[in-house]
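Why show two proteins at once? Because comparison is the fastest way to build intuition. When a single record is shown, students tend to memorize it. When two are placed side by side, the eye starts asking what differs. So, the first record is below.
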Amino acid sequence: MVKISLVAETFIDLFAGAGGLSWGLQQSGMECLLASDYWGDALKTYSHNMPDHPTIECDVRKLTMPKLAQLLPEKPDWVVGGPPCQGYSTVGKRNREDPRNVLFLQFRRIVKGLRPKGFMIENVLGLKDMSYEQEVAESFKDLGYRVRFMVLTSAEHGVPQLRRRVVFVGHRDRGLFQGPPITHDDETYVSVADAIFDLPELSAGEAATEYTKPPSTPYQKLMHLPGDVLQGHSVSNHPEHLVKAISYIPDGGNRTAIPPKLQPRAGFHNSYSRLASWRPAVAITQNLGKPSGTRCIHPTQDRGLTTREGARLQSFPDRFQFLGGVTSQRLQVGNAVPPLLAQAVGEALQDGNRWF
């Protein structure tokens, strides 16, 4: 790969959450000068896993230029981040007037004040569906950036998940960003089995803190800890009737396999569905531990996913530990940028051949 510079490019991460974006960019060779978020639990997770990254728990609206001048040792090459996405989400009713939809303007304010060489915004696909892309791009072109937006599918970059994300990249002098090269296709995607089947088997209400078998796939080896301590691998205590109901669902199947007398009364058409072991996951959400969630029942075990399995499917290695209560941990996992996707983007940002 042809690098633009031998010196590590620097960045600040706004709306950093638990650190999926920062972790991936760090793995690509970039250096974090500051990470900011208003969510205490997520920032504790971030600092626990990346203690050398300066962090500040702060409302982005209070990150003034004088405050940033105090916090930053130098001007960053990049400002990156993923503004809260609930207002953009394709789940539920989207509202262009939702106040969460204009938080990118706070991001823009900081880019305008710091004048970095480049910026990157990551968000859910719903943003593109609402035709925000031109509005966002034009707002940064006014600041002197050439901007390109693209939709990236996580599975095409080694993540065992089909989640799609919108990425905006702008730079002052490098031209237009081509995005990271696709490394996986339908024949070579990392599957759910490839990702999590080395983890200890569990029933409802059980937990494990040690591995019971060695990794057997390249992805499992990438995720596996060198030691034997396993964090976040615990199952919610599902009711007995729910366990019996989902026991009828085959690998990759759905609630139609449940006998009528055991059918749950509530839920959507894609509730109570198993992940397909031979395919990537669909999209990991904060409801990953609930069988009533969107396709988040283990392919072969009669239960919802554990936090660790969700993290694996997001491409967080096992050495990355999540802090806070179980509900908070699952929310951190579901809201995160898949680190392997972030790493692929980071490598491409620094590759002179990925600009035109």
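Second record. Ask yourself what differs from the first in the token line.
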Amino acid sequence: MHNSRMRNTDVSPLGSVDKALQLIMLLRSEQALSVKDAAASLDVAPSTAHRLLSALAHRGFAAQDSQRRYRPGPTLGEVMVEPLSLSRLREVSREPLNLLHEAVGETVQLMILRGGNIQFVDGLEGRLTLRVGVRIGDLMPAFCSAGGKAILAELNPADLEQLYRHGLPPWPTSRFRTVADLKRHLAEARRAGFGTNFEETERGVVGLGVAVHSSAGAPVAAVTVALPSARFGKEQLEEFLPMLRACREEIEDRLHPARPAD
């Protein structure tokens, strides 16, 4: 005899908090969640799961991807790279960064998103006398940085608005004054698959960046090449991008190696 159990169609206020916390735990484990998946995990009606996920997305804890699944949002992004996993990120990135540095001869850097900023977490300076210095530990508006743009371009528009809900903070060399301007630029970066910085972080510096992804496909870091604008031209763009992408792929392979077949 089939024993069915009535599914919860609603939950109490305290129960809602508990369910929301369960969803956050699922999101932080980097599972891609559909509304149906969330409803099944919580044993609630899809309408309840949708309401909870929408509330988390409103506060930046969740974000929808192009398949309308929910992934960790920018608020969780601030704590996604914890001390142990940040150490792991540096560890797996060190050799690919070294190889990229040897190939391009310019400054290469690894960064993560911290709210509306990027934070430089590792890097190697270029070999020439005129070079861009590394900025390990420094924070900078993500919308000025090549790597920051590469990450921002992959966020849901609602999450981008949440990050900059008070507008774009002033930065002396920024190209953008409004979130609408930034969105238009990020649409181009999304299509191109990389971010650029043409003297936007500071005068005389040009950068190219690509996002590094988690196993669930969420952007968790970025790798950049930065060089003096006097040495940058179309040939550098065409030469450096394949090397950046190869570095990114190597880091991703090391972050989440393929599991052996059963």
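One difference worth noting in the second protein: Residues 1-9, 78-84 have pLDDT under 50 and may be disordered.
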